[in-house]
Amino acid sequence: MRPHIRLWIASLYLFIMGTISLAYTLIELVLGVMYESLLIIGDALHGFMDAAIAYVSGFGLYYASRRGRSFPWEVYRLESLVTLLSVLAVLGFYTYMLVTSTRLEGTPTPLWAAPLFLAGAALTYAMYVWERRNYQTLKLTVLKADALHAKVDTILSAGFAAAVCASNFFKLFAAEMIAVIAAYCYVLYEFARLSRDATYGILGVLYRDPALEGKIREKLLSIGKPLNLKIRRAGSFLVVYALIAVSPEMTVGQLHVLRSRIIRSVMKLHPLVVHVDIKIIPKRKARKRAEKQCIHAHM
Ligand SMILES: [Zn+2]
User: Fold this and answer.
1) What number of other Cβ atoms are within 10 A of residue 193's Cβ?
2) What is the whole-number distance in angstroms between the Cα of residue 149 and the centre of ligand 1?
3) How far is CA 155 from CA 123, 133, 150, 253, in A?
């Protein structure tokens, strides 16, 4: 399968999962507020975070799948920023809820919430199976990280269902609070991961890996003289930018073939490289540019 198609499939998958997650979250939020259950509200807020993570990764993969165009940093940054701020607001609300509503005695969450959580567990388990299987075919690290996450979420949802049963059958209301606090801790961890990726997306941070840079340079040498090479982060992915000076005698046809070949081989060097942007200038122009820089330097 061509790389951009598999990126596109993965981004579509993440959008669908994010949307399902968001729909489930909204239903839970309404039920949680109606029945004043911190357990249900907590699960809803966690679901919101998961939807945000799916959207951020999905957007990254989608942009990366549009080969041949340069990575739209501005749009990606704006989206990352909006996502980060909305997740931060939700996290603030979650913390507030936890601080003001935690108590050891209370009315148990209605028993029908147990099948609701089990349905959530089944949904995340299905995601886990899909992601694990597709990680093997798509070879995208993001799916591997997400599969682990889906596994933890399945356990959390099952734990929520168990807490509802304990609170209803054995009058152990404290079980609900333990479940809420455990989920909150995991959400904090997820938030740390999301903000790291979003920050990388916003800043477009340079990625330093001399070994990888060396290998890329080696590939570039087969077409011409590499003048500039940058590896930037795009969320949890990497984007490679290169400027190469080539012999002016080369035909457009030759250049095109060589360029496509290099892009393919650079993509294979690292599983996180999702986009390779190669710009070409003729060697004579490159020399002039260098001379110009020299003159500027002497002025
Ligand atoms: Zn989660």
Assistant:
1) 13
2) 6
3) 12, 19, 9, 55
- Spacing, Cα 61 to ligand 1 middle (Å): 20
Examine the domain organization and report whether 193 and 215 are in the same domain: no
User: Whole-model pTM?
Assistant: 0.72
**Residue 297 pLDDT more than 60?**
no
Per DSSP, the three-state class of 95 is helix
Q: How far is it, in rounded angstroms, from Cα 279 to Cα 200?
A: 24
Among 203, 230, 252, the domain-final residue is 203
Same domain, 25 and 111: yes
Q: Are residues 290 and 171 in the same domain?
A: no
Task: Tell me, in angstroms, the distance from the centre of ligand 1 to residue 203's CA.
Answer: 25
Interval between CA 21 and ligand 1 midpoint (Å): 10
Q: How far is the CA of 151 from the centre of ligand 1 (A)?
A: 9
Residue range(s) defining the domain that contains residue 112: 3-203
pLDDT of residue 289: 64
Cα(257) to ligand 1 centroid in Å equals 44
pLDDT (tens digit per residue) in 208-229: 889 999 999 999 998 889 999 9
**Looking at 188, 203, 218, which one is the last position of a domain?**
203
Q: Which residues surround ligand 1, an ion (CB under 5 A)?
A: 50, 153
Least confident span in 9-13, 26-30, 291-295: 291-295
Mapping DSSP to helix (H, G, I), strand (E, B) and coil, where does residue 235 land? coil
